[in-house]
Design a protein that fits this description.
single chain; mainly alpha; Membrane-bound Lytic Murein Transglycosylase D, Chain A; two-stranded antiparallel sheet; 3 helices; about 50% helix
Length: about 110
């Protein structure tokens, strides 16, 4: 006796209108994320500086004001000091001989 073999065939996958909208939405989101990543890395590469940041070694007797006025002579003194503090992560105004301070790039 040969047993009847019954083959169960799955119908092809059919998406409803809502399912197609969800798939399309996911594709749009993925394309947006991919383009955002590509454009952000390209813009970062264009903005990267050509070389190391300029710096200065603090000499005995130097103050932030002295260094700011020498490195940024056209800027307001207090604004220049504030810029040096921001660039170097300084919470106060004191510097010690031998400290290396990052200077702002010339615009």
């Amino acid at each position: 006796m040969v047993a009847n073999q019954v083959r169960h065939v799955e119908p092809p996958l059919r998406l409803t209108r809502r399912g197609r909208a969800v798939v399309l939405g996911l594709l749009v989101v993925l394309a947006s994320l991919a383009s955002a990543v590509l454009f952000s890395t390209a813009s970062r590469a264009e903005q990267s500086p050509a070389g190391p940041s300029p710096s200065v070694v603090v000499q005995p007797g130097d103050t932030l004001w002295d260094i700011a006025s020498r490195s940024m002579p056209r800027r307001d003194g207090q604004a220049a000091v504030d810029e040096l503090r921001r660039l170097n992560g300084l919470s106060g105004y004191g510097v010690a001989a031998g400290d290396v301070l990052i200077l702002p790039r010339a615009a």
